[in-house]
Design brief:
The structure holds 2 protein chains of 2 kinds.
Chain A: E1 4-10, E2 13-22, H1 27-40, E3 45-56, H2 58-73, E4 77-81, H3 85-93, E5 101-103, H4 106-113
Parallel strand pairs in A: 2-3, 3-4, 4-5
Antiparallel strand pairs in A: 1-2
Chain B: E1 9-14, H1 19-33, H2 38-59, E2 67-73, E3 78-84, H3 111-118, E4 121-126, E5 132-139, H4 142-146
Antiparallel strand pairs in B: 1-2, 2-3, 3-5, 4-5
Chain lengths: 114, 151
């Protein structure tokens, strides 16, 4: 699967869909640019859809942590949805799964913002 | 009489992140040849990418003139991965614990932890010319071969 990032709106929630590898030199930068664009554009509710992420490495995890911090400092909420098991494992072993608000699907994630 | 294990596959890669894809493709070939399950192959791939990314970024400082050595070897019992760089070397013991509360929200420092989590053995040594040599081993047992494995 080719790495790409797409953005769409669901009401006042900005949904950022990640596809493919979120790894050093590729998807990590695309993800950061998309989330920063949303934050700098005034989005206060950001939902990162990870269902199509095939691999994430320490660089991708680091960027995700940095984006979470950036959003939080701007008063925005950044949440994650639909983590594949291997992506959840990567966040679990570093205990970051407890830092992020993680939801099993888009319906639950959108409801959590309201 | 069983066949002897295939010899190591050795690559010399320029210090570009694009080469991670080539290295992972070679690892997939090696894993398939040894009947390694897809889960174990995935976690070895993550560890391999971390090792190469460290060699390119921290070892060779992304200087494309400097090369990264990669060896993939092993037989029926284990996959052995060796990665060497042409940098100045570093002290693995000096890397901060990413699970410590003060490090939890840092944006870097998790690569070695992931390698140690997903592989069975990880050792660092100093190369003859001063760079870092990283050796990793993944044991191949019935679980890794049938593909049911969690980190």
């Amino acid at each position: 699967m080719k790495t790409s990032v797409t953005t769409r709106d669901a009401g006042d929630v900005k949904i950022i869909e990640l596809h493919g590898k979120i790894t050093i030199g590729a998807g990590d930068l695309q993800m950061r640019e998309a989330i920063h664009a949303a934050v700098n554009g005034g989005a206060m509710k950001i939902l990162v859809d990870m269902k199509d992420v095939t691999t994430i490495d320490s660089s991708g995890v680091g960027e995700l942590v940095g984006c979470y911090t950036t959003a939080t400092h701007k008063g925005a909420k950044l949440k994650l949805q639909s983590l594949p098991p291997k992506i959840s494992d990567v966040l679990t072993v570093t205990q970051l799964i407890t830092v992020f608000d993680v939801y099993p699907n888009e319906k639950d994630a959108l409801a959590s913002f309201s | 009489m069983s066949n002897p294990p295939p010899g190591p596959i050795v690559l010399w890669l320029s210090s570009r992140f694009e080469n991670l894809e080539l290295a992972q493709a070679v690892l997939e070939h090696v894993c398939k040849a040894r009947g390694v399950g897809t889960d174990a192959e995935h976690w070895m791939g993550v560890a391999l990418r971390e090792a190469l990314a460290n060699a390119i970024k921290h070892g060779n400082r992304q200087d494309p003139a400097k090369r990264v050595y990669l060896s993939l070897a092993g037989g029926a019992e284990a996959i052995e991965i060796t990665v060497g760089d042409e940098g100045q070397g570093f002290e693995a013991a000096a890397v901060a614990d990413p699970l410590a509360p003060e490090n939890q929200m840092k944006t870097s420092g998790r690569g070695i932890f992931y390698m140690k989590t997903f592989m069975d053995e990880v050792t660092f040594s100093r190369g003859e010319n001063g760079g870092t040599i990283l050796s990793m081993k993944k044991k191949l047992d019935s679980e890794t071969k049938k593909g049911v494995q969690t980190p």
